Every structure is written in structure tokens, then in C-alpha cells.
């Protein structure tokens, strides 16, 4: 048992070192998230900024202007304080009373303890403290110190609700296998590639957790059912037949790039498909509410993506500056509005062309929106021609997309 305990401790040390290394390359882009977390910890009486030698707001402003962020030691201090705060919040929120999370307490103990006392561990008098400590370390070592505070600021959720969304997102997307796959070849691939793929997984989990937190309770429960994850995998397997060559080409190029860089083919294929995973959450929800098959809903959704040429709009929104939290919120709101508009249009197509042949559904919808569609295409063309489309231009383009309704 001693050797296994040592491995568990080293696993934690590795994870904490990994997130600090990842945080170094993300520090500049997360300077405002760090500012918010520092201020939250101060208001909660959990942090003395001067004592911990963390930057003042004025110093953070200067770092942001210079395109810099917190140093590794500063991030380590903030990570430690955020872990302590999160752990206390989870205990106060009643983590030990959560039937979905309590079984995860088994992971905290070595095999010999689980085999001998497995049935008794969930009755441990310190189960709340043990489970909160275990899941706090697991989450923060994977997602960083600002993840929970970001979810809370965006959705006004509790710490426990944010944790449950993280756990549900991980199960839904089977990210543990992605992390294990990357870590097993860490020494065989370029360090920058390794970190960039970890960041891609982080981004997907963050978006998925936010999506779950923003859904009605019934939709949230449905998305956490095993059949939902199975349907996502089925759609990913069928994706080549659901999207046209223009949308498929960048996914194929990314898979080839990762394979050439040394990743196994299966892992490269999964990582290359990450950008296509997030939309499938809404597609599956839509297919269930409209009583249409997942493949039919996905085919219409991706056909609209290509027909409306939404990818350049998404890229332009993603390139907007986020020098402060308000700019970040504006960018995130625009991206969410584009997603919502595409989903609403997809719903109209599915509902209004239920009797049409699959290949004719989009054409039938286009006839009913022709005047507005022409104006939208002209607006999108102007966005594509602009070297640096700003917030005003992209807001107008997004609003026109939202106004695209059939006559």
C-alpha cells in the first residue's frame, strides 16, 4: 500500500506542476480573471494581498498594458488560496449529501483500503472534508485557479453547482481518456504542442460546463444521462457524412498535423474533432425537443454552418480584444448569440420542412427567407473584407443573423 500511496501523492504533485506550467503561457490572457479572483478572495477575508506580495490593481493594470501576467510563484500562491477557499465552499454547500459525487470518494483511497473498507468509506465521519479536498485538487490541477470563480461570475451558481458541472462535462466528453492519452506521450512530443492540446481540452470543458449550467434543470439531467454521451459519440463517428468537404477539410488537416507531430492516429483524430463536439450538445437537445433523429438535426445544423458561412464571423468575434472583463463579456455574449441564432434557425428548418427530402430542406427554407438572407450575406461579406472588424460591426452582423426569420 505504501507504494500506491506514494504514486497517488506523486500524481497530485505532477498535476499541480502541470497546471502551473500551463498557467505560465496563459498568464497574460488571464490577467483579468486573476484580478477578479484576487478581489473575491480579499472580499471574503481569505487573502492579504500585501502580505502575499501579489500585485496591486495598479500593478495589474501595468502588466495588462505590457501584455504580461502573473509570475509562476504568484500563480502558485493564488492557486493555494483558491483551493482552500473552494474546499470550504464545497463543504458548506453540502458536498457529502450529493449522491452523484459521493462515490468519487473511493478514488481518494489506495486499493487495499477500498477492497477492505469500500462499503464503509461513504460513511466516514470526515467524508465531506475528504471528498472536498480530493475534488478540489483534481479540478484545480486540471482547470486552474480561476475556473470556478469564472463559472460563478457568468452563471451566479454555487461552488457545488460549478463542481457538478465540471464533473458532468468530463463524463459526457470522456476527457479523462484524452488527458491520459496525452500524458502517456508527453516526453515524446513537443512541449508547446502538449500544452496547446491541454488548453483545447480545458476550453471545451469550460464551454460545456457553462452550457450545462445555463440549461433548464430537465435538459441538464438529460445531458448527464449515459445515452446522451453515447449519442454524441455516434454523431462524431458519423460526422464525415454529415458535413461538406469545406467544413471537413480543416478537421482533417488538424488530424494530419497532430499525427505528423507524433500523436497516435486515434488520439489525433479525437483531438482534431474537439471543435465539432460543443455544437453537438445543442444539436442533440434540439433533436429530442423536435422529435427528429440526431443525424437529421446535425445534418441541417452543419449545412447551415456552411451555407451562412458562420466560421469567419466566429473567428472575427474570437479575435476581438479582451483587455478587461467587460470586453471579455461582450465577446462571449456575441459568440453565444451566434450559437443561439444558428440553433433557432435550425429549429425552424426542422419544424417547417419535416416532410421534405433531406437534400431539399435547406433549399425550401432559403425560399422563405430570401430577401433577408440576401441582406445578411452582404453584411457578412463586408465583415470578411474588413481587416480588423470591430465590436460595432460584429454586433450589427450578429443582430442581423438573429433577425433572420422565415416569412
Automatic annotation (TrEMBL):
According to its UniProt entry, one GO biological process term is: L-glutamate catabolic process
Which stretches are transmembrane? none
Pfam families listed in its UniProt record: GDH_C
Q: Which GO terms describe its molecular function?
A: glutamate dehydrogenase (NAD+) activity; L-aspartate:2-oxoglutarate aminotransferase activity
NAD-specific glutamate dehydrogenase C-terminal domain mapped to chain residues: 67-401
Q: What is this protein called?
A: NAD-specific glutamate dehydrogenase C-terminal domain-containing protein
- Organism annotation: Marinobacterium nitratireducens
